[in-house]
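Entry:
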Amino acid sequence: KVPGTNFYTDAKKLKMKKMLKGGKATYDRSGKIIKEAQFQSRLAPGTQVRIEPNRRWFENTRVIQQKDLTAFRDAMATQLKDPNTFLLHRNKLPMALLTDPANAPRMHILDTNPFGDTFGPKAQRKRPQLHVESLNELKTESDKKVDDYAFDKDAGALANADHSGMGNGARDFIFGAGQSRRIWGELYKVIDSSDVIIHVLDARDPEGTRCRNVEKYLKKECSHKHLIFLLNKCDLIPTKVLVS
């Protein structure tokens, strides 16, 4: 029960009354303000607390040398290969910094488009070739293509069409339950506070019940944690299929 509610005033009416009465200054009998109104403080300028000017506020807070980072990377790689070793307290250093930069993905733009072939007098870039000379002709040609389009003759659309007989109608809320952002947040809280994660898979469809996002997150950000796959409902499938 909310304090202040009774037979005549429920919680909603009480909240409305507090909103109408609130936001004003509180006075005593002599008319002095004993509590300022919201956002209307009468403190004189300069009486508030100020931060001491110091150049340390603009410097790096946590720095690490390259040799220390290399030593930590080598030690981490050694411990990851040991299945009997567990890292209970993770360092404050981001685990993404421990990835080998040589194995990091990079864009091979210069391999496909060299600088000399793209800019300068030896540039080989092709300009776009348009078969129209004005925007009106482009609009007319686009409208003609739309009018001549036939869905029955589109092989790509027919290949991706849904032949199950189910239409693209409204989807019930129950089919999306358990997939909200709050549920995902709770899941990642459990992952961050655990050292060993057990991933339960359905033996009838192991690949369909795997959560690739969690596996990718563990591999990239929590490589020191251990992931165990557990097959459930093994009695519902043949033994030969289970062994294979």
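The mean pLDDT is 80.
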